[in-house]
Amino acid sequence: MIAIAMQTSPPEESGATPNGYTTKWWKEVVVYQIYPRSFKDSNGDGVGDLKGIFSRLDYIKGLGIDVLWLSPHYDSPNADNGYDIRDYRKIMTEFGTMADFDDLLKGVKQRKMKIIIDLVVNHTSDEHVWFVESRKSKTGTYSDYYIWREDKNGRAPNNWVSFFSGSAWKKDPPRGEYYLHLFAEKQPDLNWDNPNVRREIYDLMKFWLDKGIDGFRMDVIPFISKDGSFPDYSGEYETRPEYAYAAGPKLHDYLQEMNREVLSKYDVMTVGEAFGVTLEQTPLLVDERRNELNMIFHFDAVRLNRNGWRWKHWTLTDLKAIYARFDRELDVNCWQTVFLSNHDNPRLVSSFGDDSPLYRVPSAKVLATMLLTLKGTPFIYQGDELGMTNYPFTTIEQFDDIEVRNAWKAEVLTKQIDAEDYLSHLRKTSRDHSRTPMQWDDSENGGFTSAAKPWFAVHPNYHEVNAQQELDDPNSIYHYFRQMIELRKKNPAFVYGDYTDLDPTNPFLFTYTRTLGAGQFLVVLNFSTNTLPYVLPNELKAGRLLLSNLAGKEVEEDASTINLEPWEARVYRL
Predict the structure, then answer these.
(1) CB of 212 closer than 8 Å to CB of 266
(2) Residue 551 above 70 pLDDT?
């Protein structure tokens, strides 16, 4: 096993920008999310693994990435693809060994990158030793590690529902009580009101931090505090229970304690998955003066085009309004994330671009331009840099997601929802789209595995959409991402600069400036298939072109009117 130096350095000192932001390394990085199961298989068993990730570190580094975010790699029975953890200090057998993790960590550091890992501590697997012991007795050491309640008039303790269908309570015969599970039955919620639970969690955080990791993405972290009276919820919470679950009375006490006991002792980054957190509540979590989290993932933008599993029409003006509202409401003490894809959402170009053969490449580049020039730390999901697309699902049997399968049983088989209607929406909204294996080349299974059958189907378009093809093509999406990341790193205005939407009501164009001191940049994005002559707002002139997504096209400079092709992106220095 490779020894990794213990990280004991205190947080770094910060400077300040002309417009009042404190400078921090985690504000300046670009993050790349890896879903290990689907990234690269090294041993031919059909499942991605840590050695597979190690083998592609140069590919990631070549893109210009600073931080890798590793989705759960812990020992798990995989009821929810690793988000049901059986042992926080052990590697999932399919992914490799702790020695493999140490090799990966060393490889990341040697390439001057950083790595953050998922912290999943709202719940564990029901196979975790804590729960195995907890269900045995009401008086044992672990009896209060989870949330147990007696029935209420012969029924569940309250009307809370699971995100994976049905009641959030499960009657457990060995103990004779109900336990709470906001997700699957095999994912019981931890009792954060028990100080021993919190101590266990802080210890496991230190275990990984002392190995040398650089922070955590915290899964559904707002749900850790529960209202101990467990009232029935009503009104809006019946259809949007996340807003009730994220409003626990001691959430901020626990996060400040976590920061005090653990995070403040290391120079790391934290990002919380903030399902159920409103914009108005955001400063309570991320205001730097409160010492809780660095930033959070909001769902306003990424879920703009859906209502649960149902697809819904979205407009560019709606998307722009979200970014404007966040910029307006969050001051210099709060930092944002910028993302439109991850392992829980469909593919970027299929959701917010145009994945038709004609426009897949230019629209993916438009989205890259936007993600890397808006205010906030950008997060790229594996395959976004290739323009990977949604999978052409046709039957329910093709889906792997526990959320989909449970909803099919609970709502389709009981005739509450029409089967074809459900499938038609899933073809646009399912998170399984993002979990198909990475497409490395045009060999069998896209070069993901040498196994006859990968754990999940490879998209049939891997002959046209794959990493090798894009590495060889200087005008590819991959190389455009690389150029945009390089441009962002060279110009602090794209990190810390003030943001101004110049044309918020335009239904086709997203036009904005980023300004820091004397540096000002203009970004113009055509989110349509229309060819558009465009008079720049506010008597602006375009200035000097820094980057365009349409290679070889003559473009206007120092002009007040520009002519945009379908799905064209331009970045100017004013």
Answers:
(1) no
(2) yes
pTM to 2 decimal places: 0.95
Written as six digits, the tokens of 566 are 């379908």
pLDDT bin (cut points 50, 70, 90) of residue 14 is: low
- Would residue 273 show up in a list of annotated catalytic residues for this protein? yes
Beta strand 498-501 with 377-381 is unpaired
- CA distances (Å), 289 to each of 321, 449, 553, in order? 27, 47, 48
List, in order, residues 6 or more apart from 421 with CB less than 8 Å away.
Answer: none
Residue 101: which H helix or E strand, with range? helix 98-110
Tokens of 496: 């810390």
Asked whether 359 and 529 are in contact (CB, 8 A), the reply is yes
* Segment holding 571, helix H or strand E: strand 569-573
CA separation for the pair 435, 400 (Å, rounded): 9
Pair of tokens at residue 563? 């002519």
The verdict on whether 66 is a catalytic residue reads no
The CA distance from 552 to 120, in Å, is: 47
Contact partners, residue 49, CB within 8 Å, separation at least 6: 36, 40, 41, 42, 43, 94, 95, 96, 100
Cα 312 to the center of its chain, rounded Å: 21
Spot the catalytic one: 219, 344, 355, 503.
219
Q: How far apart are CA 437 and CA 353, in angstroms?
A: 21
Spot the catalytic one: 100, 118, 273, 355. 273
User: How would you classify the pairing of strands 295-297 and 561-564?
Assistant: unpaired
In tens, the pLDDT along 91-140 reads 999 999 999 999 999 999 999 999 999 999 999 999 999 999 999 999 99
- Please give the Cα distance from 337 to 328 (Å, whole number): 15
Amino acid at position 443, single letter: S
Phi first, then psi: give them for residue 169, nearest 5 degrees.
Answer: -120, 140
Give exposure, 490-521, as e/b (b: 16+ Cβ within 10 Å): ebbbbbbbbbbbbbbebebbbbbbbbbeeebb
Burial class from Cβ neighbours inside 10 Å (0-12, 13-18, 19+) for residue 164 reads: buried
**Residue with the larger pLDDT of the pair 4 and 157:** 157
Rg over alpha carbons for the chain, rounded to the nearest Å, is 24
